[in-house]
Design a protein that fits this description.
- The complex is a heterodimer.
- Chain A is mostly helical.
- Chain A folds into 2 domains: about 25-165, no CATH class; about 165-285, Cytochrome Bc1 Complex, Chain D, domain 2.
- Helices cover about 45% and strands about 5% of the residues of chain A.
- Chain A has a 3-stranded antiparallel β-sheet with strand order 1-2-3, with no helix packed on it.
- Chain A starts with a helix and ends in an 11-residue tail after the last helix.
- Chain B has one domain (about 30-150): Cytochrome c/b562 (Four Helix Bundle (Hemerythrin (Met), subunit A)), CATH 1.20.120.
- Helices cover about 75% and strands about 0% of the residues of chain B.
- Classes of the chains: A mainly alpha, B mainly alpha.
- Chains A and B meet through strand 5 and helix 12 of A and helix 2 and helix 6 of B.
Chain lengths: ~290, ~150
């Protein structure tokens, strides 16, 4: 190949490489990730006919009631003015674009573990949401929990940002399951008991007890799950039906509808495989 | 009074009260079995037919949906007379103490269920597939509402 042609080819490849580094995330992958993350659950009103992602769902906690905001691409009501960097910072560090802290009802302590690539894909998907002008409802918090400044202290005590690091000795499947559970699925946000300041108790990860809205949630460690076969777990996570003619509660039923029933069979198997590797923790007291 | 007649009358009176008592006072374990039987059958029609239709796992069949909705309509009215205080401590029961400590909420949950079932029955009579599927989703939530608060997870 003549020298000039080689140079031209080299430049073209370099440009392609650079373009790739700044490439848009994949919105189709992002759609699946948003399902795995269950975003629609908190960011949509809990009534029929509600516009997905236009905000509204109430989360009643001991600190007061939080309302999921509008995350459609509307420039005022939603996050239409955000950049990809704003989104990544919100998820990874729990701060607004202007810098104020988010209350950890927005589960960034889990979402911080999502990989950069997945965050870019999620952002690409969120950009495709049609703009909706529904105004986000301000949180209704008990005194003194409404001060965002106080969250800085909470974060200092309880929050370490950073993406998921695979366990070196675990299989790819178990690591995938760990990522889905700890990062995207944020299962621990409901299934891990919290201390008096509302921080999850890491030594009781997925031990169940009382969820954020005061209802009983299951222990997801082998203490409980050893009684379930893989098929029974898959059935539950796809339809909500349990053995012994029981069924999912309403809150978990939503997770099943929004998230687990939409996962690929491999991802579902990975979650189950990971859960079975957890240390068996005793049930939380009633 | 003649002694024989008197003892016969007493025996008859005892039989009558005993029979009456047996009718109104099934053993707590039996009552728990009865309500669990209702749950089993509700599960059969909900998870066997209605939910798979809503999820698109089996083809939508308007007649089968209507039949299942009708069964659920009857079943969902049945278990409520088995929740007496005497069933609170039966080991085989999955009911949580909230059933008896929060009777107003329990009643509210029942009402929500009945409303959701009635809506499903009406939808199956109307025959619109999308409406029926939406009603199934709504019923799923209404069932789950009790299971969140009043039964063990």
């Amino acid at each position: 190949m003549p020298a000039r042609a080689r140079q031209a080819l080299g430049l073209v490849l370099l440009a392609a490489g650079l373009a790739n580094a700044y490439a848009q995330g994949d919105a189709k992958r992002g759609e699946y990730l948003a399902q795995a993350g269950g975003c629609v659950g908190c960011h949509t009103e809990d009534r029929r006919g509600a516009v997905p992602f236009a905000g509204g769902r109430a989360l009643a906690t001991p600190f007061g009631t939080f309302y999921g905001p509008n995350i459609t691409s509307h420039p005022e009501a939603g996050i239409g003015r955000w950049t990809e960097a704003d989104f990544i910072r919100a998820m990874r560090e729990g701060v607004r674009p202007e810098g104020a802290n988010y209350f950890p009802a927005f589960p960034y302590p889990s979402f911080t573990k999502i990989s950069d690539a997945d965050l870019r894909d999620l952002w690409a998907y969120l950009r495709t949401l049609p703009p909706n002008g529904r105004a986000s409802r301000p949180h209704d918090l008990r005194f003194p929990f409404g001060f965002r400044l106080a969250v800085a202290g909470w974060k200092w005590l309880f929050f370490t940002p950073g993406p998921f690091v695979p366990a070196p000795h675990a299989s790819a499947e178990v690591n995938r399951g760990a990522y889905l559970v700890q990062a995207l699925g944020h299962c621990g946000e409901c299934h891990t008991p919290r201390n008096a300041l509302g921080a999850p108790r890491r030594d009781r990860f997925l031990a169940g007890g009382k969820g954020p809205e005061g209802k009983r949630v299951a222990n997801l460690t082998p203490t409980r799950l050893k009684k379930w076969s893989d098929d029974e777990l898959k059935e539950f996570l796809t339809t909500g039906q349990k053995p012994d003619d029981k069924m999912a509660g309403e809150a978990m039923g939503e997770v099943i509808s929004n998230t687990t029933s939409k996962l690929t069979p491999q991802d579902l198997a990975a979650i189950i495989a990971y859960l079975r590797t957890l240390p068996p923790l005793p049930e939380e007291p009633e | 009074m003649d002694k024989k007649l008197l003892s016969a009358c007493i025996a008859a009176a005892l039989c009558a009260t005993h029979a009456g008592a047996a009718l109104s006072q099934a053993k707590p374990e039996t009552l728990v079995k009865q309500r669990q039987a209702v749950m089993t059958l509700q599960g059969k029609y909900f998870y066997g037919t209605l939910k798979p239709m809503a999820q698109g796992k089996i083809p939508y069949d308007a007649a089968a949906a209507a039949r299942s909705a009708g069964y659920l309509d009857a079943l969902s009215k049945m278990p409520w007379d088995t929740f007496g205080e005497n069933t609170k401590d039966v080991k085989s029961s999955n009911a949580l103490p909230a059933v008896w400590t929060e009777p107003a909420k329990f009643k509210q949950a029942q009402d929500r269920l009945h409303t959701a079932v009635a809506e499903l029955v009406a939808a199956t009579k109307g025959g619109n597939e999308a409406t029926v599927k939406a009603a199934i989703g709504n019923l799923d939530k209404a069932c789950g509402n009790c299971h969140d608060t009043f039964t063990k997870p």
